[in-house]
Design a protein that fits this description.
Structural class: alpha+beta
Bound molecules: 4-diphosphocytidyl-2-C-methyl-D-erythritol, adenosine-5'-triphosphate
Function: Catalyzes the phosphorylation of the position 2 hydroxy group of 4-diphosphocytidyl-2C-methyl-D-erythritol.
Family: Belongs to the GHMP kinase family. IspE subfamily.
Catalytic activity: 4-CDP-2-C-methyl-D-erythritol + ATP = 4-CDP-2-C-methyl-D-erythritol 2-phosphate + ADP + H(+)
Radius of gyration: 20 Å
CATH topology of the largest domain: Ribosomal Protein S5, domain 2
Pathway: Isoprenoid biosynthesis; isopentenyl diphosphate biosynthesis via DXP pathway; isopentenyl diphosphate from 1-deoxy-D-xylulose 5-phosphate: step 3/6
Helix content: 25-40%
CATH class of the largest domain: Alpha Beta
Order of helices and strands: HEEEHEHHHEEEHHHHEEHE
Mean pLDDT: 92
GO molecular function: 4-(cytidine 5'-diphospho)-2-C-methyl-D-erythritol kinase activity; ATP binding
Number of domains: 2
Length: 313
């Protein structure tokens, strides 16, 4: 038997995954984040505009195996060392949560998954949440399950997982689970910079609470922005409420924001989520990429590119 025949036989037995069994987990960026209230369970109510940047982890099925509906995970990529591939990894938690909704899980094929971890961990761009959402989409495809059952599972995995499941620009409210369409975005490019400090989300929310800052009203947004200057002007009327407490804990974040803001063509620079990743918005991909090259010399993690337009989702 030739190796081609062996591969074909293995495919026929389901022992090799089709190459299409892969999903991208895009970085989530909070263009603003207002804390509007607090629930009895300690979670904060938010008003935020989330978009997805052209930087992503990649999750794929390396092979399928005997039936049982179990999954194993292997990590690779520049940030794979910062995580463990055990049961606490959000990828496996998501697959288990999906399996638990299936009437006959023993009939599902086992999945050997690989996570190519390219987004920094605990960095305010929802990498773990995006991985969990990608795992739900990927396992549903591998197991032939409908996608419409995934949203309720996503909400049990973390506040950012619902928006990452949709993976398109969205207004986030409630604790993150109430999603509505974002204003239509103008063509523009984004630069992401992370100075290499891991920032735990609960610590920043707690620091915000301890600071005694008041709740803020929701933002007023138009239905669309025709150009980046209009969008940047409106965003300047908003804040990331988690930015001051994050800077108080990790002053390097302010240095990053100042460095991004000083780049030619930058219209607005701000922190995303609970930090430490900061973003800058630019008119062109060339400007954003030139800024990324200049800032990478500090050994900061940088990514830049055009924002995916609506047709990309
Ligand atoms: C800061 C954001 O990234 C903005 O998109 C999210 O609100 C955080 O999303 P996430 O990391 O998926 O959050 P979770 O894993 O659900 O929660 C982590 C911790 O953050 C705090 N948390 C999170 C979300 C929220 N609306 N209020 C909170 O107070 C809680 O202390 C919680 O224990
Ligand atoms: N696949 C995963 N990728 C990243 N983090 C994971 C993963 N699985 C579990 N975690 C844990 O989740 C925590 C949050 O990591 P993540 O990278 O999602 O943070 P974040 O970017 O700050 O998220 P957010 O913006 O949603 O607050 C970390 O403590 C990490 O150990």
């Amino acid at each position: 038997m030739t190796s081609f025949d062996q591969a074909r036989a293995a495919h026929a037995q389901g022992a090799l995954a089709r190459p299409a069994l892969a999903r991208h987990a895009l970085a989530k960026i909070n263009l603003f984040l207002h804390i509007t209230g607090r629930r009895e369970n300690g979670y904060h109510e938010l008003d935020s505009l989330a978009i997805f940047a052209p930087a992503a982890d990649r999750l794929y099925v390396e092979r399928t195996g005997a039936c049982g509906g179990h999954a194993i995970l292997t990590l690779k990529g520049p940030f794979g060392d910062g995580l463990t591939a055990g049961e606490d990894n959000l990828v496996l938690r998501a697959v288990h949560a999906l399996r638990a909704t299936v009437a006959d899980p023993a009939a599902l094929p086992d999945l050997a998954l690989v996570l190519d971890k390219r987004l920094p961990v605990a960095s305010g761009i929802g990498g773990g949440s995006a991985d969990a959402a990608a795992a739900l989409r990927l396992a549903a495809a591998a197991w032939g399950l409908k996608k419409d059952g995934l949203a309720p599972i996503a909400a049990t995995l973390g506040a950012d997982v619902p928006v990452c499941l949709a993976q398109r620009p969205a207004r986030m409210q409630g604790i993150g689970e109430i999603l509505s369409p974002a204003p239509a975005l103008p063509p523009c490019a984004i630069l992401l910079v992370n100075p290499g400090v891991a920032v735990p989300t609960p610590v920043v929310f707690k620091a915000w609470k301890d600071s005694g800052a008041p709740f803020r009203p929701p933002a007023r947004l138009p239905a669309r922005w025709d150009d980046l200057d209009a969008m940047a002007a409106d965003l300047r009327e908003t804040e990331n409420d988690l930015q001051p407490p994050a800077i108080a804990l990790f002053p390097v974040i302010e240095t990053v924001i100042e460095a991004i803001a000083a780049q030619p063509g930058c219209r607005i620079a701000r922190m995303s989520g609970s930090g430490a990743t900061c973003f800058g918005l630019f008119g062109t991909e060339d400007e954003a990429k030139a800024a990324a090259r200049r800032l990478a010399v500090r050994e900061w993690w940088t990514e830049a590119g055009a924002l995916p337009d609506d047709t990309a989702f």
